[in-house]
Specification:
The chain is α/β, with parallel strands linked by helices. The protein contains twelve helices and 23 strands. It folds into two domains: 116 residues, no CATH class; 359 residues, TIM Barrel (Alpha-Beta Barrel), CATH 3.20.20. The strands form seven sheets. It has an eight-stranded parallel beta sheet. A four-stranded antiparallel beta sheet has the order 18-19-20-23, covered by helices on one side. It has a three-stranded antiparallel beta sheet with strand order 1-6-7, with no helix packed on it.
Length: 495
């Protein structure tokens, strides 16, 4: 298997000295580590001439966190920008012979701009080994193990009891063996693939469950993977939104109680919340400050609590930061998917990245985006929808994301994905500058600007406007363009 080296291995440092000479005094600034691998945890921003204009700044340390892949020809470790696809719209899935190459050309065309795929094992073909295969069956493994424990309830609120059990039994040898066996099965079944892992989707929301899965369980899965794999990619998708989780209910409850109750404390919920019988645990989902995630009518019907954008940004940031910090030992690449929220408020792609950087400190971030119109309103054209998604993608990059993933809704035609493919082709063409050293960032309301610099002094700009309605003034030294239209992405060399 190809080795992937997380940021932090074999670091090389450049030392920069900044001298400021004054008439009265001479000040020699202390050397600071400027890692070409983005390992400085500080978010140093350089001064500008005024609030509106980015001037030629002093060098700063990259704040992006990267995975590194060995070049097969040179064996040199190089930054790796992951572009992953969960399903491939427009490609025909078949359960025919593994060696069947009938649809090879379609697969090659539809995945030309990606390097990672998630494909159900039933549909794998030998030619797919041109891509990294991301695999994950740990949710089934975990719940298969829990199903055998007869003392645990089988009711609609069973996940509460399962989480409490897991917190006290994370080191159970049978559980560890179940994880070890799953990794062993994967390695033996897919020896010809470069393998990556996504153990449990939306782990802090519970994955397929309705109560969060404890961070310690994610740690055990990661440990099992590392026993059999050398520096694997292990993607941890934390949540399907940043509004809150049952994780915070427990955090808040334990501020005033010594332990969680044996049964879910339904007495703390409202009448309407308790009327929700299909998913009775939903009422316990809350933000770090206790703000409920959902509102319920008297029949138990639910929807998100209405929050103004500034409140949502504040709550979202802190929720994501705390969750990322709690789960940071679960893998080496981290993600969140929030398709509807990202579409409604593209600025959240930047908020999410910032919060994850703050919580994770030194782990790469690859956000999940909507690749095939799952969250597209019926009255929005595929072209305009993809324009919004493109803005989300580049905004996350400006804020420090070093990879992206796409979930693709199979229930829809491939028309949105068709419009996405040129965006991915363009992204690949822009990767060379994304790999360059970051020398400046400017985030001001809906304007997001990143300045890169190559080894010869050439400078490049990546900028987005996350507003759906208003232009954003763009005053960057050396850049002729002076404004960005709503949802516009601007990528260019600075002349």
């Amino acid at each position: 298997m190809q080795e992937f080296l997380p940021a932090g291995i074999n670091k090389k440092y450049m030392w920069n000295k900044i001298q400021l000479i004054g008439i009265v005094f001479f000040l020699l600034c202390v050397n600071f580590a400027c890692s070409e691998r983005g390992l400085d945890d500080s978010e140093t921003e350089n001064p500008t001439a005024d609030n509106d204009t980015i001037v030629d700044p002093l060098p700063i340390a990259d704040t992006e966190k990267w995975l590194y892949k060995k070049n097969k020809l040179t064996s040199k470790e190089e930054k790796f920008f992951g572009i992953g696809l969960w399903h491939v719209p427009g490609y025909t899935l078949t359960e025919n012979n593994y060696t069947d190459v009938t649809h090879y050309d379609d697969f090659k065309e539809r995945t030309a701009s990606s390097n990672i795929v998630i494909i159900d094992s039933r549909y794998l073909k030998s030619y797919m080994n041109e891509k990294i295969l991301m695999i994950g069956n740990f949710s089934a493994t975990l719940h298969g193990y829990l199903d055998k424990i007869t003392a645990l309830p089988k009711s609609s609120d069973k996940d509460y009891y399962r989480t409490q059990y897991l917190k006290g039994n994370a080191n159970n040898p049978e559980l560890i063996e179940a994880f070890d066996n799953e990794v062993r099965r994967i390695v033996n079944k897919y020896p010809e693939f470069e393998r990556a892992y996504f153990p449990i989707d939306e782990i802090a929301l519970g994955g397929v469950a309705k109560w969060f899965i404890p961070p310690v369980i994610g740690e055990k899965m990661y440990e099992s993977i590392k026993k059999r794999e050398t520096n694997p990619i292990v993607l941890v998708d934390l949540m399907g939104h940043g509004r809150g989780s049952t994780f915070f209910f427990e955090q808040n409850y334990l501020k005033t109680h010594a332990s969680m109750p044996v049964k879910p404390p339904y007495d703390l919920l409202s009448e309407g919340t308790n009327a929700q019988k299909t998913y009775p645990l939903l009422g316990f989902s809350q933000a770090y400050d206790g703000t409920p995630v959902y509102k319920f009518d008297h029949n138990g019907n639910y929807s998100y609590e209405n929050l103004n954008i500034e409140t949502l940004k504040r709550i979202w940031y802190e929720n994501v930061r705390q969750i990322a910090s709690a789960y940071q030992r679960n893998g080496n690449v981290f993600s969140i998917n929030a398709f509807r929220d990202f579409y409604a408020n593209p600025i959240l792609a930047g908020v999410t990245t910032d919060a994850m950087k703050d919580g994770l400190k030194d782990k790469p971030i690859w956000l999940y985006f909507d690749g095939n119109g799952y969250a597209k309103p019926a009255n929005v054209t595929p072209e305009n929808y993809v324009k919004n998604v493109k803005c989300q993608i580049y905004t996350s990059i400006v804020h420090g994301a070093t990879g992206i993933f796409f979930w693709n809704d199979w229930s829809k035609t491939a028309i949105v994905f068709d419009n996405l493919l040129p965006v991915l082709k363009e992204l690949n063409e822009n990767l060379y500058m994304i790999y360059f050293h970051t020398i400046e960032r400017k985030i001001e309301n809906d304007l997001h600007v990143m300045i890169k610099k190559d080894g010869n002094g050439g400078k490049y700009i990546i900028a987005t406007n996350t507003s759906k309605t208003n232009d954003a003034a763009l005053n960057v030294h050396g850049v002729e363009k002076k404004k960005l239209n709503p949802l516009e992405v601007y990528v260019s060399k600075i002349q």
